[in-house]
Specification:
With 136 residues, the protein is of the alpha+beta class. The chain has one domain: Jelly Rolls (Sandwich), CATH 2.60.120. The protein has helices at residues 23-28, 97-100, 118-135; strands spanning 3-6, 11-14, 16-20, 40-44, 49-51, 59-64, 70-77, 82-84, 89-94, 109-112. The protein is globular and about 35 Å long.
């Protein structure tokens, strides 16, 4: 299962990420689901806006451009609300997770997936490891 890394800060944003790319999976998103764990997220692509109709819990929505640079962080979006952005995709997490992960506008996120090309996978992993080593 993919995970999302913040290559700007060298941190892990979410350990378990589901990806919604089909029309129905994007439309349904997190509707009627139980709250996710703090280490889980849903990446919806493409999506420049979200709704939280029929959701059971508030979320943080991290909007990303095509290069997966954070263009907007909408925190604590409660059920039955709408959030708009000029982004290309959105990462949805349980409310409070974006702040705890330190995600801010301008950060570069990377989807670290076992199915990615080996070069891209290596670059993402090396960037996170390098950032961690610099802090120690």
């Amino acid at each position: 299962m993919p995970r999302v890394l913040n290559s700007t800060k060298g941190t892990v944003v979410a350990e378990e990420v589901s990806v919604a790319r089909s029309f129905w999976s994007r439309f349904c998103g997190l509707m009627l689901r139980r709250p996710m764990a703090d280490n889980q997220a849903l990446l919806i692509e493409p999506s420049g806006s979200i709704h939280t109709a029929f959701m059971r819990f508030p979320i943080d929505a991290v909007f990303l451009d095509r290069d997966r640079t954070v263009v907007k962080v909408a925190e604590n979006v409660r059920p039955y609300r709408v959030s708009l952005s000029s982004g290309h995709s959105v990462l949805e997490m349980v409310a409070g997770c974006a702040r705890r992960a330190g995600v801010e506008r301008g950060d570069q996120l990377v989807v670290d997936d076992q199915y990615m090309e080996p070069i891209e996978h290596s670059q993402a992993a090396v960037a996170v490891i390098d950032k961690r080593e610099q802090r120690n």
